[in-house]
Amino acid sequence: MTRFLLPAALALAVALAPGLADARAGSGTSSGSAGSRTYTAPPSTNTAPSGAAPMQRSLTSPTAPTTATAPGYAPRPSFGGGFMGGLIGGGIIGMMMGNGMFHGGFGGMFGLLIQLALVFFIGRWLFRTFLGGSLATAQGPAHGANMFTGQQPAPPPMGGGSAGGPPPIQVTPQDYAQFEQLLKGIQAAWSAQDLNGLRAMTTPEMLSYFNEQLAEQASRGVRNMVGDVKLQSGDLAQAWAERGVEYATVAMRFSMTDATVDQTNRVVDGSTTEHVTATEIWTFMRARGGHWVLSAIQQAR
């Protein structure tokens, strides 16, 4: 037992220990604002198929609905979900009482295995029959062409197109080019600790987070340098307008060198030569007719 628990304990300690990993702009957190959709998970894409992590820091009050469910609507449990819950719950309770799933039925370990197999196959059949179709329809296929192919993807079936919701907007190849420039420009200004440069490319909220993170590095006597940023893939998750402001959320996978150095330029974490890859979901905003600025960063799940 010790042979298996010791590596797991060490891995957990490393994961929980404070360090300098993910020291790039944003520091591996999810923060910022995206209008009324700040606390609503953006749709998944080919680049980020598992979606985005929930927002951890934001100046936006979490008063808007945090899911796609309309306010005041409580979804009814499906037949498959309720039936399976009763079946599995009853079976487990029966097994704990020593009766098995079928009272007076199969006995011993062989009977237990048969019962578990029945639960598995019945559960899979019920899931496919009653939940599989609706789940696929609700999520839909991953959408969005590569950001920089110059092709405009078909508008995704997102909530913003429904009555009463923010209307979707079209994103052009020129917009995609700006997103890539902002990705590289923000990382460059971050590495140079250029707050004026960051101010021109971010909202005041995001600038305050970057300033706080840079100040924390300065108190440790270190500096993070990100270089050779290369976009590997990217696609549109959603784009909409509200209150005279336009938003676009895009998933981006990019490679870079990520190194943290001390005051003597000695590397204390990361590498100045080896590339690492990150996947993040960035939300940009602009006043109509204006230029895009970064308003939020979320980590991919």
Short overview:
The chain is of the alpha+beta class and 301 residues long. It is built from six helices and five strands; from the N terminus they run αβαααααββββ. The protein has two domains: 22-63 and 142-299, Nuclear Transport Factor 2, Chain: A (Roll), CATH 3.10.450.240; 79-139.
Assign the CATH architecture of the largest domain.
Roll
Cα(first) to Cα(last) distance is 31 Å
Q: What is the tally of helical segments? A: 6
In total, the number of domains comes to 2
Q: Segments where pLDDT lies below 50 for 5+ residues?
A: 4-19, 64-97, 127-163
How many distinct beta strands?
5
Oligomer: single chain
Q: Largest sheet, if any?
A: 5 strands, antiparallel
Strand content: 15-25%
Average pLDDT for all residues: 75
Class of the largest domain, according to the CATH hierarchy? Alpha Beta
Q: In terms of structural class, how would the helical and strand content be classed?
A: alpha+beta
User: Numbering strands along the chain, what is their spatial order in the largest sheet?
Assistant: 1-5-4-3-2
Order of helices and strands: HEHHHHHEEEE
How much helical structure, as a percent, in the residues?
25-40%
Rg is 24 Å
Determine the CATH topology of the largest domain: Nuclear Transport Factor 2, Chain: A
Shape: globular
